[in-house]
Amino acid sequence: MTEEENQSWKIAITGGTGMIGSAVRKSLEKAGHEVRVISRSGDEGTILWQPDEGKIDEDALTGTDAVIHLAGEPIAQRWTGEVRERIYSSRVRSTRLLVRALRDLPTPPKVFLSASGINFYPPTPMGAQLDESAGEGTDFLSRVCHHWEGEARKAEEFIPRVCRLRTAVVLSPEGGALAKLLPIFKSGVGGRIGSGEQPFPWISLEDYTRICLHLIFQSSYSGAVNLVAPDAVTNEEFVKTLADALDRPAVLPVPKVMVRMAFGEMGISTLYEGVDAAPAVLQADSFEFRHPKLGPALAEILG
Ligand SMILES: NC(=O)c1ccc[n+]([C@@H]2O[C@H](COP(=O)([O-])OP(=O)(O)OC[C@H]3O[C@@H](n4cnc5c(N)ncnc54)[C@H](OP(=O)(O)O)[C@@H]3O)[C@@H](O)[C@H]2O)c1
C-alpha cells in the first residue's frame, strides 16, 4: 500500500449515482476515503450542480484531493437531434464548468480523472490494437469524446495529473450493456450482429474501479488511458461466450438493417461497428487485470 492510500483523501465524483460511479464510490469508501458525490439531485450529503445552467457549489469543493468526472446523458437511446445535444452538452459543458470551478479553488486537487469513451477512436477491424497515441475518428461519438477530452485537458494547466479514461463497454449485471443483453440471451434469441467480425471492446466493472484507484494512488501517469481488457474479442466471440456462460444457444444473427431500424445510428455506431484498442498505458504502468479474459470474467460477473 502506498503512503497516499494510507491517508484518507477527500474525493469528489460526478456521476457518482450512476452504474460506474456507485461502484467507484463504494470501493473508495471501503478503502477509507471520504467521497462527496456531485449530483443534479440536491439529495442530502451531495454537492449540488446544475451543469445546464452553469451552476456548481464551488465552496463545497474546497480541500478536495482528487476529482473523478463521470457524469453524462446515457448514450444507449435513439439519437434524435435533442438527444444528441444532451449527450454532447452534458459532457462538454459540464466538464468546462467543473474545470473552471476547480481552477478557482485556493488549492487545486492533485489528480483529475475524466471519463471518455473507446469510441474516441475510429472503428477498426480486429487486430488493429490501437494504443493511446492513435488519432480520433470522425463520427458523432468520436467528436463528443474529442471535445469532452479537450475540456478536461484544460485542467492540465493547474492540476498535476489529468487522466482521460477512454473506456470500453463496462460489464456488470447491474446496468449498462450487459444488463440489457441478459434477458435477450436468457430467452435464447441472442445472436451476433452482422458478420460478427467487428471488435467488441470490454472491461469488467471491478477492473474499472481498480484502475481508478490505481491511477489516483499508485500511478504517476498523466494523459489518455485505454480502459479495455487485454483479451480482445470479436462481436461473435462475445456473443458465443455470453451464450455459453448462460448455457443458451446464440444462433440467430441480427442483420444491419434490423440494428438500424431498432436503434438508429446509435446501434450502428455501438453494435455494428467496433474499436480494437489495447490497454498499452495500463500494461506499461504495471496494472494487473483481475479479469483479463472474457470467459472467466463473465462466469464470475454472472455468478
Ligand atoms: N457504462 C459503460 O459501458 C461506459 C462505457 C464507456 C464510457 N462510459 C462513460 O462513463 C460515464 C459513466 O457511465 P455510467 O454507465 O455509470 O453512466 P450512468 O449510469 O448513466 O450514470 C451517469 C450519471 O451522470 C449523470 N447524468 C445523467 N444524465 C445527465 C445529464 N443530462 N447531465 C448531467 N449529468 C447527467 C447522472 O448523475 P446525477 O443524476 O446524480 O446528476 C448519472 O448518475 C459516462 O460518462 C459514460 O459515457 C460508460
From TrEMBL:
Q: Which InterPro entries match?
A: DUF1731, Epimerase_deHydtase, NAD(P)-bd_dom_sf, SDR39U1
User: What Pfam family is a match, any one?
Assistant: DUF1731
Any transmembrane segments, and where? none
Which residue range or ranges hold the DUF1731 domain?
254-301
SUPFAM superfamilies named in the record: NAD(P)-binding Rossmann-fold domains
All residue ranges annotated as the NAD-dependent epimerase/dehydratase domain in the record: 11-218
Q: Which Gene3D superfamilies match?
A: NAD(P)-binding Rossmann-like Domain
The family annotation for this protein states: Belongs to the NAD(P)-dependent epimerase/dehydratase family. SDR39U1 subfamily.
Its name, as the record gives it, is TIGR01777 family protein
